[in-house]
Amino acid sequence: MSDTVKIILMILIMIGVLIVTLHIAAWKMKRAGDFILRDLRNKKAFDPFSAIELPYCKSSMFRIGLRDYRPKALSALLQSGKVLGLEGGRYCLKEDPTPTKTGDGAAA
Fold first, then answer.
1. Domain count of the chain?
2. What is the domain range of residue 29?
3. How does DSSP assign 12-31, residue by residue?
4. Rounded to an integer, what distance in angstroms lies between the CA atom of residue 32 and that of residue 23?
């Protein structure tokens, strides 16, 4: 193989690795966001009066282990408006926990 083909092949492999890595990171962020929403629903944190603290979403200077995507996912949920942040590090869902009914009887 010529050197030009080898260089082009390596560049394509590097681009492929970058794309796969970005997809894996996005998938992990989505899973962390779903985990946070499920945790808030299970603990029935539907309004500011029932808001709860999320201990895993506090930043720590010293941490051992794999990367935790939950703090970044929480900030994304706060920015999107799905989660409401209150003073004291408490959080609750901003959406209504019960599905709304439409005129034809189907849930929206």
1. 1
2. 3-93
3. HHHHHHHHHHHHHHHHHHHH
4. 14
